[in-house]
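Example 9 (inverse folding). The structure is encoded as follows.
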């Protein structure tokens, strides 16, 4: 059991070859599409984090047979439609889970009530409820579309929807609903976001057309297509691999390899940015696995230089800015991160919490409405001090980022609520300890 507080301090170099748990985005989608399909879908490499387990329970509540065969090996048997759940669907901490499931459920003639933990109940659901209402779904709940809320589905008519923000969750919710809408659903995304839903829909036998236009990426999906069960292999999550890799980059003498990391280019913005900062980050063994490109990434301790991250790269690394900010704290010169207002509506306000945590550790940070700048320690000339307890507001990535910071700062860094790390990266602490990290 993880204690109420975890502490990270600098020590020996980090060394080793590891694999991180399966990709969270793909794991949610594999369970949901498996439940929407007819027949038995087999999944291996499923992330068994709290977020995904909540989605597995939800799929069972909507009528699928969900069975765990062994480590990361699951089957989902669907009948081609959802039944009305007998109880409230609790999605825990998972924004992806609840938003995609609401989209899928909206396609059926049923009523379902959704809730989540304190963080999820504070997050905006209007971004999904608005397009679902245009498709014909009904909902009732708290002002501003916060959970808990009750959604009524069925009788949907396809829409053409231009995404008002770069969000793969919103895109995916509309596509999932569009599967059971009358007519052709068209989603236009001005900025391309992770495309796991489009890829996986094809793997389940659906026809999805993707093209580029002056307005952006256009995705077309005809309603009424029946999904067929599939075999899904989930590769390692690049968003999880980011933590041990950055830890190696900032800890002198380190060399860490993470094998089998998914390398979809709509997810690898962090690695591109780190290379631009001068990181010794080498990707080898590129191969295809489960319809996605996968490779092994080796990081060695590096002298990093601050950069300005192009705002257009944000969708390809939106969950990685907290750990990039940690790398930036050890770089020479400022790292400027802009066009990332979406970070404020994640599991926590991640701009505010990273700015507060880094400042408390003695790092120079300038916060803006839609971004922040981290002024690095000039390659060790002004060591990062640490020596504080960071409030994580129950956000797993805020906790892991500050623990990595503590591995290279002068004094230990403590985080509260470390149990939340299990939402996305169960085994994080043991894996880091196995590399030599002093986290306890
Ligand atoms: C996700 C999309 C992103 C990301 C989240 C996972 C997904 O959210 O932050 O962790 O699986 O579609 P947004 O769609 O809100 O940007």
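The amino acid assigned to each position is listed next.
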């Amino acid at each position: 059991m993880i204690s109420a507080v975890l502490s990270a301090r600098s020590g020996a170099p980090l060394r080793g070859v590891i694999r991180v748990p399966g990709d969270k985005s793909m794991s949610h989608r594999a369970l949901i599409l498996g439940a929407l399909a007819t027949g038995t879908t087999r999944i291996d490499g499923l992330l068994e984090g709290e977020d995904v387990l909540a989605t597995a329970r939800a799929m069972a509540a909507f009528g699928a047979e969900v069975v765990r065969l062994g480590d990361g090996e699951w089957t989902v048997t669907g009948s081609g439609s959802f039944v009305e759940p007998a109880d409230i669907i609790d999605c825990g901490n998972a924004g992806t889970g609840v938003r995609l499931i609401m989209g899928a459920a909206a396609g059926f003639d049923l009523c379902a009530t959704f809730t989540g933990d304190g963080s999820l109940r504070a997050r905006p659901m209007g971004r999904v409820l608005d397009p679902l209402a245009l498709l014909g779904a009904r909902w009732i709940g708290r002002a501003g579309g916060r959970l808990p809320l009750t959604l009524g589905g069925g009788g949907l008519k396809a829409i053409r929807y231009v995404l008002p923000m770069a969000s793969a969750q919103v895109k995916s919710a509309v596509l999932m609903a569009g599967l059971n809408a009358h007519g052709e659903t068209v989603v236009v995304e001005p900025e391309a976001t992770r495309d796991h839903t489009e890829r996986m829909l094809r793997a389940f036998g659906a026809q999805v057309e993707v093209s580029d236009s002056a307005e952006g990426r256009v995705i077309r999906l005809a309603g009424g297509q029946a999904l067929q069960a599939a075999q899904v292999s989930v590769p390692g999550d690049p968003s999880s691999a980011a933590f041990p890799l950055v830890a190696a980059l900032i800890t002198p003498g380190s060399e860490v390899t993470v094998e089998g990391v998914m390398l979809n280019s709509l997810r690898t913005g962090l690695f591109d940015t780190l290379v631009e900062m001068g990181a010794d980050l080498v990707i080898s063994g590129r191969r295809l696995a489960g319809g996605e490109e996968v490779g092994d990434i080796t990081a060695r301790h590096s002298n990093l230089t601050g950069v300005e991250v192009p705002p257009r790269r944000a969708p390809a690394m939106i969950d990685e800015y907290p750990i990039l900010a940690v790398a930036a704290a050890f770089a020479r010169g400022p790292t400027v991160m802009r066009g990332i207002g979406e970070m404020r509506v994640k599991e926590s306000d991640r701009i505010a919490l990273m700015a507060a945590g880094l400042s408390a550790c003695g790092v120079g940070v300038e916060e803006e409405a839609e971004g922040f700048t981290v002024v690095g320690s000039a390659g060790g000339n002004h060591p990062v001090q640490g020596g504080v307890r960071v409030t994580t507001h129950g956000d797993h990535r805020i906790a892991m980022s500050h623990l990595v910071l503590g591995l290279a700062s002068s004094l230990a860094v403590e985080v509260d609520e470390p149990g939340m790390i299990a939402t996305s990266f169960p085994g994080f602490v043991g894996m880091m300890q196995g590399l030599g990290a002093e986290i306890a």
